[in-house]
Amino acid sequence: MATYIILLGPPGVGKGTQAEILAEQTGLAHVSTGELFREHIKNKTELGILANYFMHKGELVPDDVTIAMVKDRIMRPDCEAGVVLDGFPRTPVQADAANSMLNEIGAKVDVVPYITAPKEVIVERLSSRWTCRESGHIFNVAFNPPLKVGVCDFDGSELYQRDDDKAETVQKRIQVYLDRTSPLIEYYRTVGILHEIRGDQEIEQVTKELLDALKK
Ligand code: AMP
Question: By alpha-carbon position, which residue is closest to atom 15 of ligand 1?
């Protein structure tokens, strides 16, 4: 039976970092919608041009195109054992779509770890986050630095600061999260699959608590 995990939490709380680790440790595929959009932007596809218009303002990409992209991605063979979804769903409409697409393949959302941290921590983390150009590996100059400044430990590619991690856009992204994504917390709590985890701890401790939540 395939396993589907949704990582919920504000931008900058560590979803991407933890999703990478979880995927590696569990053998599930890591599907990050932000990363998929950034790939499209890099490849200058039609979807990339559209997504970039919203992303650089800190707004959400429209539900219909986001849902279609995720549906296509999770049907690929590398997702057969299941998926760690990072950054999706982000709206109630997307949460409904996640339920229906999993329902269609006889699966369901198994667990929703909700990673939390105070706003100051999130803002600080976003402003010191550096991302790898090749495949989106995440570093933080203050808390999780690369071995060599400006270079990804995993694939040697250049590290850059995301356009939307700059101070002006960060505040907007947090507001969009509060307005549009935070209702999902109550939704998954009601379903009974939400596990709250403090994200303002050492990376290893957060991973440990995530793995414990999966065992339950
Ligand atoms: P992330 O890498 O998860 O921080 O996402 C970066 C940006 O991509 C977001 O601020 C949105 O503009 C866009 N994005 C990522 N995931 C979604 C989603 N599920 N729905 C709409 N927009 C998204």
Answer: 34
